[in-house]
Each structure stands twice: as C-alpha cells, then as structure tokens.
Amino acid sequence: MNAKLGICHWSCPIDGPYALKMASELGLEGIQLDIGSYERGFPLSRPSIQKAYVEYAKKYNITITSLAVRELDRHGMTRKDGTMEKEIAVEAILKAISAADAMNIPIVMLPSFEDGEIKTDRDFQRVVNCLKMACEEAEKKNIIIATENLLSIEETKQLFNLVNKPNLRLYFDTQNYHLRRNYNVASMVEELFPYICEIHVKDGRDGHMSGALLGEGDSGFFETMEVLREKNYSGWILLENYYDLRPLSLEGDDPIELLRRDISILKTQVLYSNG
Q: For the stretch 30-54, what's the b/e string if a residue is b when 16 or more beta carbons lie within 10 angstroms of its beta carbon?
C-alpha cells in the first residue's frame, strides 16, 4: 500500500497554522483543514487566514488534502429549506467551496452527523438535494465533494445513484460505522472502496469515540487496514484521534507523544507487506 499520511487539524494538539509545522516535524505529509464555525464567521473564508495556511504549507512541505465543513454537525443538511439553520448550512458549503478554490484544495468534505445525521427518508432526500447543489457548484471549480455519513452499504449506493454527480465521493472513517451503527468496518470498506476518496483513522472502546490508540480499540482497525492493503489504497489516510481530550488523553501525559505512537502504528500498517 502506497498511501500518504496526514492529520486532521482538529486532532492536532496545537492550533492555527503552526499545526502544519508540527505535522511536518512529526513526519506527516498532509493536513485536513476546517472552514470554521458560523459564529466566528467561517474563519478560513478570509483571504488573510487562507494566506497564512498556504504559506505555512509551502514552507513546511505539507499538502492541504481537503477542507471540512464541520459546521454541518450543528446546522445540518437535513434541515428544512428556508429555515435559518439550512441557510447557514448552505452558506458554509458555498464558502468552503470558494475557499478550497482559492487555496487549491481538491476536496470539500460534508459530514452528516449530529444535527445533520440522516435518520428518515425526508432527511435522506434533503441531503441528496444539498449534495447535488454542492456538486454542481464544486464542479465549476474542479473540486470533489465528499460525503461522510453513517449510511449502510446499500443506502450509500442509493445516495450516489440519486445525486448522480461525477464529483461526488465518500469520505471513509474507520471508527464511526462501528461506533454508531455496529457495522463491520472491514466489510464496509471492501464494498464501498470504489467510492472512497480519503480516509479518517481513529479508534475507541466501550462506546467512546477516539478513546484508544489505533488498534487498541474495538473498531477492527487492523482488519480494515488489511483490506486497504489488499486493495492497494494509494490515497490519503488522516489521523483523527483526539490526543488532548479525554478519554484518550488519559493514556499519557503528553498528547504529542500519544500522536507519535499513533503515527508509528499507522506507518507500520501502511508499510506492512504480506509478501
């Protein structure tokens, strides 16, 4: 497997553009950023902040792999059209596409969790409509829209068929499906591999998100990595454990050292060869 390794900005124990320096010093190659919150005016939509991140990325040879719209966890795509909540969701998506274009970021990730979790047929259709809109806007700028969700294999395939846009992809996560739906993650990645553009890796145990280092939880991390090796996955794998938050932070005194341990585990898995 010739995958490239990075980290989510929100998993870094250090905030701001300086996180890119830290990632580089730890031997990582990429980082996923977030557009930021509505309450703070979507900070990464501002040219001055974009410039700072682009400069640090160039200085420390870090690729900005994708741009997340985590505000959708608070104002979901499942909200009714015409409501303030839906208007905020749409604004966040459009600002993220614009920022990605300005910063030469190839992927915008749209999560469907918490407020935006798809629970009903109505939710499903609203997300389909929103993804269509996002894909149409992103296609003008050669940007991929990536959905991250908790749908089953069949529901995911149905979503892709209904959106029916060439620039829609799946953002895969190695714990969410097990934690929230008790799905077999290795089976999910086997069936959905053709749709995947990037991957988050985290682990946990006893119902805790990000409650364990990679492979020390109950999500089947090693089995999932084995499938990715068999598929010869060559895209980005991004660490998404929360090293400075409980319960994972209780595993050690220094969150950066915990991060180093996860990097070592991940590199071993990526470099591992059955031959």
A: bbbbbbbebeeebebbeeebbebbb
Per-residue pLDDT, averaged over 243-267, amounts to 97
112: CB partners within 8 A, 6+ apart: 72, 76, 77, 78, 118, 127, 147, 148, 149, 150
Say whether pLDDT at 273 is over 60.
Answer: no
Give the contacts of 259 (CB within 8 A, at least 6 positions apart). 7, 11, 12, 13, 26, 239, 241, 243
Question: 84-93 pLDDT, tens per residue?
Answer: 999 999 999 9
Q: Which residues pair with 30 in a beta bridge?
A: 6, 63
Average pLDDT over residues 40-45: 98
In the CATH hierarchy, which fold is given to the domain comprising 4-269?
TIM Barrel (3.20.20)
pLDDT bracket for residue 271 (50, 70, 90): confident
Check: pTM over 0.70? Answer yes or no: yes
